Amino acid sequence: MDKYIQEQPRDFLAVATPGAGKTTFALTLASWLLHHHIVQQVTVVAPTEHLKKQWAEAAARVGIRLDPEYSAGPLGREYHGVAVTYAGVGVRPMLHRNRVEQRKTLVILDEIHHAGDTKSWGEACLEAFEPATRRLALTGTPFRSDTNPIPFVRYEEGADGIRRSAADYTYGYGSALADGVVRPVIFLSYSGNMRWRTKSGDEVSAKLGEPMTKDAISQAWRTALDPRGEWMPAVLRAADQRLTEVRKGIPDAGALVIASDQDSARAYAKLLREITGSSPTVVLSDDTGASKKIEEFSRNDDRWMVAVRMVSEGVDVPRLAVGVYATTISTPLFFAQAVGRFVRSRKRGETASVFLPTIPDLLSFANEMEAERDHALDKPQKEGEEDPYAESEKEMEEANKQQDENTGEQDMLPFEALESDAV
Question: Most CB atoms within 10 A, among 169, 256, 291, 421?
Fold first, then answer.
């Protein structure tokens, strides 16, 4: 806030670790700009229908009324602005351009990397919001420029020759952890023996985490996530046991499985029903029903929720403390978003646990977060102060194994998963 108020920039990119309070910062800034008559209205652009509603609810709590159902025409006088999706802007960019041309507008672009999901979304955002008085872009981690071009973002070339987004302000996981805003994460990586059949009919066996070609890693990973094997049931059982332990300290703690697709999500829900004896909440698509289910899960004390990957990004349930990463996406941005579901701190001493397959990329992302975590937790204790994380130290030491490299969504080569186990 201090930096923004001092510099008064037209464009500002804030990178804040998921769970650190990007929404709170953005709405505090919006309130300040409205109060000082620098802007007259606010437009929030979010990736999903659920997040759009979440923004409107959060804004209402600080006295800013946003219409999450806005589609066209004049806005009701009781509103300070609108909450829309990138897809919505993509369909009618001129409608939004006319709105920002008529009145001085602050545009908040939440998770702005989504403006690069399709080329047309980036172009539509540029067309719609180029005349805006102020633009605030938010994201969880810096992103590369090799996706579709994203408007209003400055890129700088790194030592490796790759151009990445340049932030005006960064609040990383380590800083948020040191400030007590987020929980420390314990990563528990599971290996195991995988067997699958390739398109040519060859049977292949391999152990997760051992050196393999990119294609073999992809196929071993998908074999592990196959609900018919032994790996997923074993990991879900371990995660459920972990949840029982966590609930001794956090009675309402919940757990989330992030699945690759709807079929997998349904199959994992069936496994959880067999393991726990009760049906988990299953969220399959970004619709009104999904928002209702997420809100209900947030308020009750049910143990498990299963969500597909895009929906999981919009899940804001502070009681989530255990996660199972059961998707084949291996980008740092998605990994940070996924882990962000579990780190929102409610009181000092809480920890989060995330179960992972032993996949090189995921382990390197986890190692980076652990390095920040350990650095933040190593800060000197005041005299007489107890270490609130002492209980988890043993688990932190046990939690991990290897590292290596690969990027992007896994290549879907034809293959058939045969069997898997977890160790």
Answer: 256
Predicted confidence band at 286 (pLDDT cuts at 50, 70, 90)?
low
Amino acid type, 388: P
pLDDT, greater one: 309 or 197? 197
Sign of the four-CA dihedral 331, 332, 337, 342: positive
Q: Which two tokens stand for residue 56?
A: 């409107």
| pLDDT tens-digit map of 58-115 | 999 999 999 999 988 889 899 999 999 999 999 999 999 999 999 999 999 998 988 8
Cβ contacts of residue 19 below 8 Å, gap of 6+?
A: 176, 181, 182, 340, 341, 343, 344, 345
Which DSSP state fits 409? B
Burial of 323 (0-12, 13-18, 19+ CB in 10 A): buried
Contacts of 421 (CB under 8 A, 6+ apart): 192, 193, 229, 230, 231, 234
Asked whether the beta carbons of 278 and 378 are under 8 A apart, the reply is no
Distances, alpha carbon 164 to alpha carbons 113, 145, 146, 155, 265, in Å: 11, 6, 9, 5, 33
Tell me the DSSP string of 191-232: --EEEEEETTS-EEEEETTS---HHHHHHHHHHHH-TTSSHH
Query: pTM here?
Result: 0.80
CB atoms inside a 10 Å sphere around CB 76: 9
pLDDT in tens, 352-404: 999 999 999 999 999 888 888 777 655 444 444 444 334 443 443 343 332 23
Start-end of H helices in 131-287: 173-178, 214-225, 231-246, 262-276
Question: 131-182: per-residue pLDDT in tens?
Answer: 999 999 998 877 766 667 788 988 888 787 778 888 999 998 888 888 888 8
b/e map 406-416, b = 16+ CB within 10 Å: beeebeeeebe
Buried-exposed string 140-157: b where 16+ CB fall within 10 A, e elsewhere? bbbbbbebeebbbbebee
161 by DSSP, 3-state: which? Answer: coil
Chain CA centroid to CA 112, Å? 13
Cα distance between residue 303 and residue 250, in whole Å: 12
Contact yes or no for 413/419 (Cβ under 8 A): no
Phi, psi values for residue 415, rounded to 5°: -165, 170
